[in-house]
Amino acid sequence: MTSTDTRTSTGVRQIKGFRPDIEGLRAVAIGLVLIYHAGVDRLPGGFVGVDVFFVISGFLITGLLIREIERSGRISLREFYARRAKRLLPASGLVLVVTAVLTWLTVPITQWRTFGLDIVGAATYVVNWVLAGRSVDYLAEDVAVSPVQHFWSLAVEEQFYIVWPLLLVLVGLWLRRRATARLRVVLGLAISLVIVPSFVWSVVMTASRPEQAFFVTTTRLWELGIGAFVAIGAARWARLPQRVAVVLGWLGLATVLASGLFLSSSVPWPGYAALAPTLGTAAVIVAGYTSGRAGPAGLLAARPAVWVGGLSYSLYLWHWPLWVAATNQWGDLGAARGLLVMAASFVPAYLSYRFVENPIRFSRPIAASPRTALSIGGNFSLAGAVAGLALVAAIATSGVPGGDDREPGGAAALASGDAAPTATPTTDDAPSPEASPDDESPSDAPSSEPPPEPPSAPSPSPEPPAPSPGAPGTLEGLAGEDWWEPEAVRATEDVPALYDMGCQVDQSTSEPVLCEFGDPEGDVTVAVSGDSKIAQWMSALDAIGQERGWRIQSYTKSACAFSSGVQTDEGEVYTSCVEWNERVRATLVAEQPDVLLTSQRIDKALADPADTSSGSSEAMVDALVETWSHLQDEGVPVVVLLDNPNPGFSVYECVAEHPEDLVECTFDREAGLDDGAYRVQTEAAAQVPGLRTVDMTDMVCPDTTCVPVIGNVLVYRQTSHLTDTYVRTLTAALAERLAPQVEQAAAG
Question: Is the pTM for the entire model greater than 0.90?
Answer without folding.
Answer: no
